[in-house]
Amino acid sequence: MAFDNISEATIHQMHGAGNFTAYGVNGRGKGFKYNGAYALTVTPATIVVSTPVINVQGTLKNVFNTPGCNVSFRGVYVKRID
Known about the structure:
Layout: E1 2-5, E2 16-25, E3 31-43, E4 53-61, E5 71-78
Antiparallel strand pairs: 1-2, 2-3, 3-4, 4-5
């Protein structure tokens, strides 16, 4: 699954709330796409090369074009030590 931010002009790097277009491949190898909405919180708000840890918390709304099918998640990026 790949998500493209279609609100990029005003909400860079999917930080905040906006809309996305998702692209995927089903179990039979057929490509598909759909639109949905997202709300993400990324901390710290300003990320630089030396930022050691980035936290992401969010919700993807109307997954697979299914109203009410919302996925909430938490994730973390940790800078590699090499």
